[in-house]
Design goal:
- Two copies of one chain form a homodimer.
- By secondary structure, chain A is α/β, with parallel strands linked by helices.
- Chain A folds into two domains: about 220 residues, Aldehyde Dehydrogenase, Chain A, domain 1; about 150 residues, Aldehyde Dehydrogenase, Chain A, domain 2.
- Helices cover about 40% and strands about 20% of the residues of chain A.
- In chain A, strands 10-9-11-8-7-12-13 form a seven-stranded parallel beta sheet, with helices on both faces. In chain A, strands 5-4-3-6 form a four-stranded parallel beta sheet, sandwiched between helices. Chain A has a three-stranded antiparallel beta sheet with strand order 1-2-16, with helices on one face.
- In chain A, helix 3 runs antiparallel to helix 7.
- The first copy, chain A, starts with a helix and ends with a strand.
- The interface between A and B is large, with 65 and 65 residues.
Chain lengths: ~400, ~400
């Protein structure tokens, strides 16, 4: 698989953008055409699934949404070959920084079946070959989707090895991918829970564009507009509790907690709140323990902590945050700027919901995850983030003195 | 050391650029002031050294050059806090991509003593803390240089932990750095030979901005201007044979080899040439073996291979190259563009010497290596390449529908 992907990557590197666009469009068409087969295989996955049934289950509307998601990627600008910068040196050398594909991506994920289609489309848009390793619970669905993707590639005259899938649930395949398949994989993108993240950290022998947990914080400063604070906290926690940008911990200034906490609690119907001692003195709540500050609940549970001010909020986030997304609600611009500068997360927000942590919402068109590391790309991973670059130097016979 | 560096990184993150500039300037001053002590310790290193004496040995001129190199970095634009992009979303969210320091860098190197000063200055310019691990042969010199650097930090009111040095030649320290020192190191930069590169590949548990070998190629196309080809090959190989951008293999089109190879050989005084069968039929040379195509000689030796044309040259480079720097000499623009697009190296050049593969020559002001991987930064690693970024999102109470 690695060798095939490497060869396909060489083809993709110099394939015209229009051919890759056509392939992605044909992928969408083939997904629609084979919706029946995909739903049939998905039903077999669902029949033996023991958890996350809603996440796993497809219906006609979801298959159509998957096809539309792929079409959206077909319409995105092609990043390959774009000059990011160009300058001339005093000796006449002309230097351009040009976007290039990364090469071969290995993606290991435990997610909705549509990630199979999204990852293939975004990878192809960036000129990369990809080897997909879906979770075992969605394997039959993903194999069926992959058959449609392969036909789309073939329709456009691109090699089938541009998008491959590991056809087995055998977990040793994950180890093989993490080893780099004999130097053929350039980048691993993991997307999954704590166990996968730890395995990747221990075993990966190639660069990783990581998706750590999202223990996101919303901090309500003393200067916050009360109505805005209530709306943002409610949305940040409850709009969808299962996404990585959902707020997990509320930090709130002691000065305003007696007034604001009860208002927030009123708006959080169906949400369990777990508080520190100071906040429980204001509002009856389950006591929060140390593990709550570390928790990525992905559930209607909110940890609550009263803080002295912006510096204590920043310290809490530095201690317990995972570098994903944090927001401050404040009218005081000095407090907000201090928070935006000092908090070292991929995304920092002022007066907005952490649920905006999403490539689509950022205007990237699509994403296959949020990177929480500090190298290469940080934040939403879209087509542009799956590129590298090279320097193209044009001379007229210059030699170095 | 890791905890100290982490704390220092937090201070550096929000220190004003002027303070970091002042610290770098004071570092240069302290290096000059303590030149005697640095030379004294360097003499002790030299006294027990068994190899690379010239590379290791300092004199007053080299110490002055080291101080000037540091001053150069002080004068470079500060990358931290720069807005790389900013845009508004239809919902009014204002999104900025802002440069940030990476955090804590671990640098493991086997190089000239001046790298100790360069790496500290470039790291500080980018707002990062750094832990230096010099080669054991330069340890006393590096410790003396480090004392000057520490005083420079102190002069400017910055924590000494912003630049630390591993004070022992014990090789287990390398393993500790590669493990990430308990999660305190964000990035490892290795700069050394094959043994170090392999150890990093096996043991690193944190991201690596790698400096693989530089097996650089110069390819002379049939359309090349003969005089230019001779000049470029000579410069690319012989200007300095010990730098990573020196050409190690000459590829030459069969069509012009009978005329050009003798001209090139005439210009390569003092250089051993090792050829494949076809080129030895033109010019008497030592036979080249498979290992020659893989060799980073860093010496006055040039491997020579005759090729059918640009595609065979591209294939040779894909097989034996290390992704560093490759050049084509050609008057035919179609051949040149094919080479520039198809060769996937950090730097590809047309009608110029591979010895220009250098951050200073690119206009970056300074560099601490050339990255040959495809993630994060590729090519010369200067202050800008040692930054990350974050998204700063400013709203007015937006919640996600």
């Amino acid at each position: 698989m690695g060798r095939g992907a490497r060869t396909a990557a060489e083809t993709l590197r110099s394939a015209p953008p229009e051919q890759r666009t056509a392939a992605i469009e044909m992928m969408a068409r083939r997904i629609r055409e084979q919706a029946g087969e995909i739903l049939h295989e998905n039903a077999r996955d669902v029949a033996v699934a023991t958890a996350h049934i809603d996440r796993l289950m497809l219906d006609e509307a979801r298959v159509e949404a998957m096809a539309q998601g792929v079409e959206l990627v077909a319409g995105l600008p092609d990043p390959v070959g774009i000059e990011m910068a160009r300058w001339a040196r005093p000796n006449g050398l002309d230097i351009a920084r040009v976007r290039t594909p990364i090469g071969v991506i290995g993606m290991i994920y435990e997610s909705r079946p549509n990630v199979t289609a999204d990852a293939a489309a975004i990878s192809l848009r960036s000129g990369n070959a990809i080897i997909l390793r879906p979770g075992s619970d969605a394997l039959r669905s993903s194999l069926a989707i992959h058959r449609a993707l392969s036909q789309g590639l073939d329709d456009a005259g691109l090699p089938a090895e541009a998008v491959q899938i590991v056809p087995t649930a055998d977990r040793s395949a994950v180890g093989a991918l993490l080893s780099g398949l004999g130097g053929t994989i350039d980048l691993i993108i993991p997307r999954g829970g704590k166990a996968l993240v730890e395995r990747v950290g221990n075993e990966a022998r190639v660069p990783v564009l990581g998706h750590l947990e999202g223990v996101c914080h919303t901090y309500v400063h003393a200067s916050a507009d009360p109505d805005m604070a209530v709306e943002i906290v409610r949305n940040a926690k409850l709009r969808r509790v299962s996404i990585c940008g959902a707020t997990e911990t509320l930090l709130i200034d002691e000065a305003v907690a007696p007034v604001l906490l009860p208002l927030i609690a009123d708006a959080m119907e169906g949400c369990e709140m777990r508080g520190d001692e100071a906040s429980r003195a204001i509002l009856p709540m389950t006591p929060a323990s140390e593990s709550d500050w570390h928790a990525e609940y992905l559930a209607p549970i909110l940890a609550v902590r009263a803080v002295e001010g912006v510096d204590e909020a920043i310290r809490h986030i530095a201690t317990y945050g995972t570098g994903h997304t944090e927001a401050i609600v404040a009218e005081d611009p000095a407090a907000a700027e201090r928070f935006l500068v000092k908090v070292d997360s991929a995304i920092v927000m002022w007066n907005a919901s952490t649920q905006f942590a999403d490539g689509g919402e950022f205007g990237f068109g699509a994403e296959i995850g949020i990177a929480t590391g500090k190298l290469h790309a940080r934040g939403p991973i879209g087509p542009e983030q799956l590129t590298s670059f090279k320097y193209v130097v044009r001379g007229s016979g210059q030699t170095r003195p």
